[in-house]
Amino acid sequence: MPELPEVETVRRGLLPMLEGRRIWIETRRPDLRFPLPPDLALRCAGRTVLGIDRRAKYLMIRLEGDLVLMLHLGMSGRIAMVPTDHPLGPHDHVIIDTDDDRRIVFHDPRRFGMLDLVETGALPMHRLIRHLGYEPLDPAFDGAALDRLLAGKRCSIKAAIMDQRLVVGVGNIYACEALFRARISPKRSAASVVGVRASRLVPAIKAVLSDAIAAGGSSLRDYVQASGELGYFQHRFAVYGRAGQPCPACDCGQPEGVRRIIQQGRSTFYCPTRQR
DNA sequence: AACAAGACCTGCATGC
DNA sequence: TGCATGCAGGTCTTGT
Fold first, then answer.
1. A68-77 pLDDT, tens per residue?
2. pLDDT under 50 in chain A at which residues?
3. What is the nearest nucleotide to A174, using C1' and CA?
4. Which residues of A27-43 are buried (b: 16+ CB within 10 A; e: fewer)?
5. Residues 79-138 of chain A: which lie with beta carbon within 7 Å of strand B?
6. Active-site residue, A153 included
7. pTM
8. Which residue, A65, A153, A224, A260, could crosslink A190 as a Cys pair with Cβ 3.0–4.6 Å?
């Protein structure tokens, strides 16, 4: 269920367990979104983890020897720390064991997730990385950048901010939440978001993502202790999943409340009164 | 060139 | 209970 905040929270949870540790990988199923590199386990065996970065929704586990283990959680991917004698299930596809006897499990029922091993120098040109747009929390992603990205775009503003070639990390939930916060209708054409609307959107995107990361970070320690899972947390959304409920920010006076529509085959939630 | 639709998978909630 | 349907937080590929 990961968008950028969940992936970032996984990164922060994983880092203290893996940084500086030697790791051994076991692949229990070769076919995730695409086939795993066949020699993945062998090439990683016993290498030390130097650090973990994030680019878009990809985790980049940096290994000694100029290798990077790329991990994407897809729709249903989860990372958990489990005891080494914990029984493994049918969807526990990849196991990472450390030299201090910890075990990390990558669990992904739908198998839209992926894992790849690339040389550090080749990473920027990796086919899945090459076309990615701005990091939304990077200061370089500002109003002027958004203006350039949206100019001439005829798709909806929601489709635009979910387009990973423009800005990364914003998935279906946080697209809805950011547009709500910026009071912009998700149906509006991207190119029509200019002026005062555009000036609200960049801060809104940064704020919803930052708030969610903060919420994940604050719950992470307890959550790890409870279940072993890293990076999943209860988070309250203003509009996502709240069709029919009253708009939390205005008194619309309409009985319908938060409206649900379909855009690009995905559910969109918004307040038609507040968002224009 | 830009956009929408289809594809990939499984699990879950709902309704008959 | 069984079965069909629709839905789910992603994104690459295909088709118009």
1. 999 999 999 9
2. none
3. C9
4. beeeebbeebbeebbee
5. 90-91, 109-112
6. no
7. 0.95
8. A153
